[in-house]
Amino acid sequence: xxxxPLCIIAACYALLLGTTPAIHGLETAYxxxxxxxFPIGILPTGVKSYEINKDxxxxxxxxDGSCSFTIKGYTLKYSNKITxxxxxxxxxxxxxxxxxxxxxxxxxxxxxxxGENLNFSVGITSAAFSVDNFYVCxxxxxxxxxxxxxxxxxxxxxxx
Length: 160
What we know:
160 residues; alpha+beta; 9 strands
């Protein structure tokens, strides 16, 4: 019976590690955001895997399913796959992220980090929010209000 040389097996394993870092615990999608000067909270919790080409900046992030929540009166919806191009302080060509404005769902196509603000563009208009709002990742279904519920529960448990 033929057994492939150990170096071929090791090379294949190294290739797999290099193309799927999130699965193997090297860097998370949240780590990548910080490398490019973005806070982790622009992505909700639950990214299962991601791909990035550091030469071109093209990326894809994957969730188990779609995710939506409301923050400061805006309902956001993330599809199970988010795509785009990342560079220092800029996310562009975004796909898979929408915001509900009045009755309409609009695609968020670009996010830029400008000083103390993150500017979210839907093409025809944009809105700026303090970067302080994005230091913690929102959770699907309840956004940041999950965190306040957990904090209140923690206070109740430990005050009893």
